[in-house]
Design a protein that fits this description.
The protein is of the alpha+beta class. Helices cover 30% and strands 26% of the residues. The strands form 3 sheets. Strands 3-2-1-5 form a 4-stranded antiparallel β-sheet.
């Protein structure tokens, strides 16, 4: 077991996903809050949940990731994005902290300048920085944390997600790894719902 864990570079994902979910659940159901508390995809749809809108899901079509393929696989072999690992980006890890993990950048088909630019752009759509996730190359700045649907809608910058690519044919397994973004309509729909639930004299905040 120890040998398997030591040899699997992605084993930590099994621990960070539930930890991220628990942390984000603490931010649920805050009236007027525009913070995203969940992102998930099922191979067909991509959905988000927002603190100030209860258990409602706001969905759009899942996108096909772009990146590197294994063996002889290519774009035609990839299924639209699927899985629960986007909860890590929701808490400020994954694609949001790529600047701290240059090794994973190559795995998903990127490079160091892309990693730096991606992390820096995520500060424009988040509510704060998490000092517990310090990024050395950015002078130990905290990871961008707390996706704000208001900021996403205002800037047009979509959250960046690192993901594995599942095969479109059942039973194929993983065919590659890459980068993907949520559909913009998830955020605009959430913003409309949030606006309709907030009194006219109250400003939506985190």
């Amino acid at each position: 077991v120890v040998r398997f864990i030591a040899g699997n570079d992605h084993f930590f994902l099994n621990l960070v996903m539930p930890a991220a979910k628990l942390a984000l659940d603490a931010a649920r159901d805050i009236p007027g809050s525009s913070m995203v508390v969940a992102m998930a995809r099922n191979g067909t749809d991509f959905g988000i949940q927002v603190s100030g809108t209860g258990d409602a899901w706001f969905t759009g079509p899942a996108q096909v990731p772009e990146g590197l393929f294994l063996g002889n696989y290519g774009p035609a072999d990839a299924n639209p994005d699927i899985g629960d690992s986007a909860i890590t980006e929701t808490v400020g890890l994954g694609g949001f902290s790529m600047a701290a993990a240059p090794a994973i950048v190559r795995f998903v088909g990127g490079d160091v300048p892309l990693a730096l630019a991606t992390t820096r752009s995520m500060y424009d759509v988040t509510l704060g920085e998490n000092p517990a996730f310090a990024i050395p190359i950015l002078d130990f700045r905290g990871a961008p944390t707390g996706i704000d649907v208001l900021a996403v809608a205002r800037t047009g910058i979509l959250p960046q997600i690192n993901t594995g690519m599942a095969g479109a044919v059942p039973g194929t397994g993983q065919v590659g790894a890459g980068l993907v973004k949520p559909p913009a309509e998830c955020f605009t729909a959430a913003l409309r719902r949030l606006a309709s639930s907030v009194p006219a004299d109250t400003e939506a905040t985190a």
